[in-house]
Each structure stands twice: as structure tokens, then as C-alpha cells.
Specification:
Blueprint (H helix, E strand, L loop, with lengths): L1 H8 L25 H4 L12 H12 L4 H13 L1 H12 L5 E5 L6 H15 L4 H8 L2 H4 L1 E11 L2 E10 L4 E4 L5 E4 L6 E2 L5 E5 L12 H26 L3 E5 L6 H17 L9 E5 L7 H19 L14 H37 L11 E5 L6 H13 L6 H7 L23 H40 L3 H11 L5 H25 L1
Antiparallel strand pairs: 1-10, 2-3, 2-7, 4-5, 5-6, 8-9
Length: 516
């Protein structure tokens, strides 16, 4: 059923280069019946590796025989913990990046919707992170091929599995341009369109055979292995005291062998037996300095770190030159490598993963207008600095595009109808008539409030003062009478009460003026 469906759809599919795609071949992976590749055992060329053997492996790769070179790369990553650690840092740097599916330039509504649909489909792939990590295997080895097995899920054609295939399965066909093919007769077997994610990563310029990062690391790996072996031999010889056995004259061969066996047991087991009449003597361990071997090992690892991460301070701290400033500089170099890796990987995923999914599901008509995969590598700027600087620049009359500011701050453009953050709208400035009316209302309210609070006190005062004035016959009598009205009040309390009364009177007068 799957084959019939694909055959019916075959005429509608074009590869990214415009060539037709035989979609019926997608019913099963291309290597499904290549038993010779699946049952092939890896060789281990690092066993007994010498400078001449390494040179021969590299020469053979340049002449088209890649198997030994890529098996060498596998051994290097497996046996050298430093290389594996540093490569892991570089490869996993991409896993922490956000990504998106971008519509083509000047998109219409349908193209924007197609990009959103593709993003949802890729988000639903269970092994997407594993696939991304496998693609980055090309950073060290020059190229990586991942085979896609398709199936239909909820009405969409999607990858069922995306499997990494060893580089030793492939060969490079020379011609106008280099082409990666499966190993086989007559120049190899071309890779099936829509069936592979083929990522060729340029660590340096040159042909595919020579552009791999591991080719640079091979020589430090070899020199380091020599130094590690020499250091182990040094510790074995110089770290154990010399043991000398003495036997009496005329011993048999069996007696000599017994004494030699006892010396060996003493060296490894710290215990042994010898016949009576024989002697054992322990001499001081030979003197030596392992610093030379350690210096060579350190140089090799620093060279590996520089080649992989662009520096050493993000992986090795010696406590002397490892300042914070230098560490930041080295980290910036590492970010440049990450961004370069992300750009190369994104191009491959756009061509070999996004485009086939879009084409098979009717979400793109050709490669030119197909949405693209993109990593978000831009670091957001300091929000506090921009929040302070931008208003000042705008106040000086500098015209700052809003889209530019949002890109610098890594703030996406809101979709139509999408909820956005905002501030409460400011109240409009009152008109003159409105201001007068508002002031009148506030004055009336304040006057009424003071009048209500002071009326019980001032009313009683006024009545008692009026009676005092009517009965007094001189100003001195009025003065003495006022002092007797409230004998418990001080002059400060009188002054405060009068101030409140005068304030109330002034507000009342202002209110009457505004009313007029």
C-alpha cells in the first residue's frame, strides 16, 4: 500500500536541484538489503600506530581509500578522553540553541502558515535531538550521513527513524564536484534523494578527504600516545626498587628459575619464597624525572584544545595565565565556532530534512520558496542598558527602527492579535475649563471638610466671645476674659486653632469666587 501511494505521487516531487525524485524508492531505506555493510567489522588502525603507518593511512585516503582513515578517527575519539571531551563540548553547543523554521523572503500568508506547520511537525519528532547530535559528527570527521526511514503518521509523511551510518561505508566520487556515495563497484552507489541527511562540514578548506578536523588532531594524538607509553614505562622501571638475587655456586637451572620467580613475585605481590642458601638484596630505585613526558602530553592536549575549541582556557586552567579576561576572550572565540557550525548544519537540515518533509506533505512547491531551518545564535543584548539608552537617543531626534531594537534584544515580533505586555494608558491632560472645574470641586470639598471638623469648636467660641464683648467695658476686660474662656490652652494651641480657622476661611472665600 505504501509503495502504491508513493508511486502515485512520484510525478509531483522534485529534488532541491530540480531533478525528479523516485518516491517509490522511499518505501524502505536504501541500505536495507546491503548485508555486507551491516555485517562489516571495524578495523582498529591505532594498534601499533607509527608515524610511517599514519602517513600511509592519510596517503591512501587522498587516493580514494577512506576506510582506514575513518576507522582511525573512530579509534581516536574512543581512546583519547581529552579529544572526546573537547569534541563533546563543541558538538553539544548546538543542542542548547533554540531553532525555528523561517518562511522565505517576502512571504505570503500561505507560506507563513506552511512554515508554522513544518515547525510543528519537526517539534513532534521524538529523536530530533539525537539526529542533531549525529549530524555534528561531521565536525570532526568531515562528513556525516544519516539514513531516513519514512512512514505515514496522522496523514503526514514523516521520518520514522534517522540512523547514523559509519563514514567507512562511503567513498568519494571525484569529478567536477565531489560526491559522497555508498561503497560499491563502478565508482560507488549514488545516495537516494530524500533518503539521506548528508552533511559535509568544513573545518578547513580543501577536499573532503583532507578537510576533517580529526586529520589535524591525528599527529598530536600519535605523539601523545608515545609520551604516555614512555611515562608508563618510566614509572614501572623507576618507581620500583631494584631487586637482586644471589645464589651459591653450582646451582641447577631449576634453582636459578626458582630465584628469578621469587624476584618477580616480590615486585608484584610483595611476597615470595626462596631456598635456603640464596639471598635477596633490594637496591634504591633509579632516579629520574617524569616532567619531560608530562610536558609533552600537556603540549599535545593544548594543541588539541586549540584545534577543537579555538583556545585552551575554556578547558584547561593552569592557575597562572587563566585570568577571567582571557577566559572571556577564549569563550568568545568558542562562540564564533558555534555560530559557524550552526550556520553549516542549518543549511544541511533545510535541504535534506525540511525540504523533503515540505515536498512530501505539499507544504512547498520548490526549493526556492521552501521555508528554511535556522538556529537562534544571537545573544540578547543588555535590556537595562537599552532601556536607558534608547529613550535618550529618541529624545535627541535619532530615528530608531523598532524591528532593529527587537532583533538586538531577541524579542520576537508579535503575531496579529497576540497578547502583548504594555503600560496603562496615561490620562489626557485636562483642558483649561476642565482644570478650573476640577480645582473648584477640590476647593469646595476641602472647605466643607474643614468646616465640618471645626464647626463644633468655632461655633461655641464665637457665642462665648460675643457674650464677653457685649458685657466688657474695656479692651483689658476682653483680654482677661479671653484668657478665662479656655484656661487649659497654651498660646501654641491658640495659634494652631487660629491657623486652621483662617485656612478654612480662605478656602471658603476661594470657593465663593470660583462660583461667581
Amino acid at each position: 500500500m505504501v509503495i502504491k501511494t508513493l508511486r502515485a505521487m512520484a510525478a509531483r516531487f522534485l529534488n532541491a536541484d530540480g531533478s525528479p525524485v523516485d518516491s517509490a524508492a522511499l518505501a524502505e531505506p536504501q541500505t536495507a538489503h546491503m548485508a555486507s555493510l551491516h555485517h562489516e567489522f571495524q578495523g582498529h588502525p591505532t594498534r601499533g600506530l607509527t608515524p610511517s603507518k599514519l602517513a600511509a593511512i592519510m596517503d591512501a585516503a587522498e587516493q580514494g581509500d577512506l576506510v582506514a582513515q575513518y576507522e582511525l578517527y573512530e579509534d581516536m575519539e574512543e581512546k583519547d578522553g581529552h579529544i572526546m571531551s573537547e569534541m563533546g563540548k563543541r558538538r553539544r553547543a548546538l543542542l542548547g540553541l533554540d531553532w525555528d523554521i523561517k518562511a522565505p523572503n517576502n512571504p505570503n500568508r500561505r507560506e507563513r502558515n506552511n512554515a508554522a506547520a513544518l515547525y510543528d511537525l519537526l517539534q513532534g519528532l521524538d529523536d530530533f535531538e539525537d539526529m542533531l547530535f549525529d549530524v555534528t559528527d561531521a565536525i570532526g570527521k568531515g562528513f556525516a550521513n544519516l539514513e531516513i526511514e519514512w512512514h505515514r503518521l496522522d496523514g503526514f509523511w514523516l521520518p520514522k527513524t534517522i540512523s547514523h551510518r559509519p563514514q567507512s561505508w562511503f567513498q568519494i566520487a571525484r569529478g567536477y564536484r565531489q560526491e559522497i556515495r555508498l561503497r560499491g563497484a563502478a565508482g560507488g552507489i549514488p545516495l537516494q534523494p530524500f533518503g539521506w541527511i548528508t552533511h559535509a562540514h568544513k573545518a578547513k578548506s580543501g577536499t573532503l578527504e583532507r578537510s576533517a578536523l580529526f586529520r589535524v588532531l591525528a599527529w598530536p594524538y600519535l605523539f601523545k600516545n608515545y609520551s604516555v607509553g614512555d611515562l608508563a614505562e618510566f614509572l614501572e622501571i623507576y618507581g620500583i626498587p631494584m631487586r637482586v638475587g644471589k645464589y651459591p655456586s653450582g646451582p641447577t637451572a631449576q634453582e636459578k628459575l626458582t630465584l628469578l620467580r621469587a624476584l618477580a613475585q616480590l615486585g608484584h605481590n610483595a611476597a615470595g619464597i626462596i631456598p635456603s642458601g640464596m639471598e635477596l638484596e633490594f637496591l634504591n630505585a633509579a632516579q629520574g624525572d617524569p616532567a619531560a613526558f608530562e610536558l609533552m602530553i600537556s603540549w599535545c592536549e593544548r594543541t588539541q584544545s586549540k584545534a577543537i575549541l579555538g583556545g585552551t582556557l575554556t578547558s584547561q586552567a593552569d592557575g597562572k595565565s587563566s585570568t577571567n579576561a582571557l577566559g572571556n576572550v577564549h569563550n568568545e572565540v568558542r562562540m564564533d565556532l558555534r555560530d559557524s557550525d550552526a550556520l553549516q548544519v542549518a543549511k544541511t537540515l533545510s535541504r535534506d530534512l525540511v525540504y523533503p518533509i515540505a515536498m512530501l506533505n505539499g507544504l512547498a512547491g520548490d526549493w526556492a520558496r521552501c521555508p528554511r531551518f535556522k538556529f537562534e545564535t544571537q545573544e540578547p543584548e543588555d535590556l537595562a542598558a537599552y532601556a536607558e539608552a534608547l529613550p535618550a537617543l529618541v529624545g535627541l531626534g535619532i530615528r530608531v527602527p523598532r524591528q532593529w531594537a527587537q532583533e538586538r534584544l531577541a524579542i520576537p515580533e508579535p503575531e496579529e492579535g497576540e497578547d502583548v505586555l504594555g503600560t496603562a494608558p496615561a490620562e489626557p491632560a485636562p483642558l483649561p475649563a476642565q482644570a478650573a472645574a476640577s480645582a473648584q470641586r477640590r476647593a469646595a470639598s476641602t472647605a466643607e471638610q474643614l468646616d465640618d471638623e471645626l464647626q463644633p469648636v468655632t461655633g461655641e467660641w464665637i457665642e462665648r466671645i460675643r457674650a464677653l464683648v457685649e458685657q466688657a467695658d474695656s479692651l483689658e476686660a476682653i483680654r482677661d476674659g479671653l484668657l478665662e474662656l479656655l484656661p487649659d490652652m497654651s498660646l501654641e494651641q491658640y495659634a494652631e486653632a487660629m491657623a486652621q480657622a483662617l485656612a478654612a476661611a480662605a478656602l471658603q472665600g476661594r470657593h465663593e469666587i470660583l462660583e461667581e
